[in-house]
Amino acid sequence: MSKNSSPYHDAGWLLSEHLQSRRGLKSIAFDSQCKNNNNDRKKAPPDKATYATVCKTMQHLAIINKVLDANNLRKTIGLDSVRNKGLLYVMIYELLFGKYKSIRGGGKIKRMIVKHEKELRRVAEECIATNGGEGRDKDVNFPRYIRVNTLRANVSDVVDKLRGELRSAKDGTISRTQRVDDTNEETDVPLVYVDAHVPDLLVLPPTASSWLHHDCEYVKTGSVVLQDKSSCFSALALARGIGEGAKGDAATSFDYIDACSAPGNKTSHLAALVQSAIDDINRSSKRTRGRTRSTIFAFERSSSRFNILQERMKQLIPSPSEDCAEVAVVPIHDDFLKADPSDPKFANVRAIMLDPSCSGSGIVNSPDRWMEDGYDNKDAKRIQSLSNFQLVALKHAMSFPNVDRIVYSTCSMHDEENEGVVSKALSEVEKSDNGNDWEVMAPVCLDHWPRRGREGGIGGLTKSQADCLIRCDGLDGDETNGFFVSLLVRKNTASECINSRKTIDSAGIPIYKGQFSCSNRTSFAASDSDSKQSTRTDSSEPIQLKSSQGRAQQKNEKSSAKANDKSTKKRDKKLAWKRKQALLKSSRMKKKGERPTAA
């Protein structure tokens, strides 16, 4: 970034670019074409402090706007005349919510703000009190999810390495003595868990993000993928949504299409799941890996994103010469909407994963995504435009003659992009009367996920249809970003399938049951006894821990209470010692005829 006398110049520039272009912060910050104000040279990527300042400002943007709108402060201060809105927001954040509650440096904008400092602070306190004592409207701190890429690594090996990292990382070490399985052995176990819903997905403490990043060895080698839990649902629903496989094919002898594939996380996840199913067949038939049995055609129309997709596939997907992989990924630089369903190349395609562009309103742990809805009144038109595109894409997927299953998903919370699109697609395809009869089906692999779709409303779906849809809500205790998943199948397809889900193989690793949750509420846990309820749109009752884990939790609670009690005793002992020393000093001074000082 370019040098400037203001310590907030780079942060203000980055935020202003986001507000004007509505592009993501990361795409702006690391865009190689990014120019400085003089437009004569490229900017360097921002440092961590700059990026952190922008993110924190974004998290407080809604309440900052409330403060400025109160008592006509925006007009009184003259903020509408400020051209650098990003710098303005950053300075107000620093003054009202920053670590030191002050603005460094100087300049005209600072003078405008400081002139009304008292009023700004008073209104901010009122807004915070009205907002339940929080300086932010939304605050999330999810666990760090990482998916083990089973095409490159073994889950147990990765867990062993991660435990070593957690022991050595100062800000990532969270370990405690807990009971393991049903034995009486007490072991110091770093908190690495397997997810209860997605196979091969590991759950780490939120602090692990400080050292687990894109330069990490495991990530660079393709052993693990940094992927949020809810975004894993798309590939999982497509590969295992109809059960353990259709009769005679086990869902492994046909091809797939990933319609909007970059950057490739979902593509590689789908490849890993299909390869896992093939390996199960190989083990049962005692055969070794051979020729390619399934191909995934990965579409991406953007040139820059297509380049990213190609690099990611080289990193994550072994070539046939490396490991005799029986799943091949073929990146296609083209628009999926232009793909010809009658092309012989796609004759063996029976499944399509469609995760199109959306508003991103469910991404609550990325402030530049979830804050978008509060900027202006253009959102309704934008969402309508997105839903129109999503509907066209879904209907195009339905037009492939041999496709009998489609997963349509978004990271949006808006009904218009979710239930509305699914409902319109079902009704319009049915009206076409060309034999393409489709229906929604509840993914068998996620039958233990409680939150379901919304009936009635914009989509007009029946309750039974809504119960087939999957929703995630990061602001309502799901510990993952907001997401929507629908599995559409041709009628009678479900009846041809084996309706049973594959249980999670934890390989002796404890299953995550909300251990990192900030609340006392236990997260949804997988259990064969879990029953699907009609009220899935509401938060379900917490699932009780199994006996051994329940005892472990009770033991941890007792240990915590004992630790607190020990800390209190230590403090009292120290205060008693100080009082004793003061009395002794007073006594010595009296003997010397001096006047004691107050203790």
Automatic annotation (TrEMBL):
**Tagged with keyword Disulfide bond:** no
Does the record's keyword annotation contain Signal?
no
GO biological process terms, alphabetically, are: methylation
Which stretches does UniProt call biased (Basic and acidic residues)? 529-539, 554-567
* Catalytic residue list: 411
Q: Where is the composition biased (Basic residues)?
A: 568-593
Annotated stretches, region: Disordered: 523-599
User: Which molecular function GO terms apply here?
Assistant: methyltransferase activity; RNA binding
Residues holding S-adenosyl-L-methionine: 260-266, 300, 335, 355
- The SAM-dependent MTase RsmB/NOP-type domain is annotated at 134-491
Q: Where is the composition biased (Polar residues)?
A: 540-553
Q: Keywords assigned by UniProt?
A: Methyltransferase, RNA-binding, S-adenosyl-L-methionine, Transferase
* Similarity field: Belongs to the class I-like SAM-binding methyltransferase superfamily. RsmB/NOP family.
Annotated protein name in UniProt: SAM-dependent MTase RsmB/NOP-type domain-containing protein
Originating species: Stephanodiscus triporus
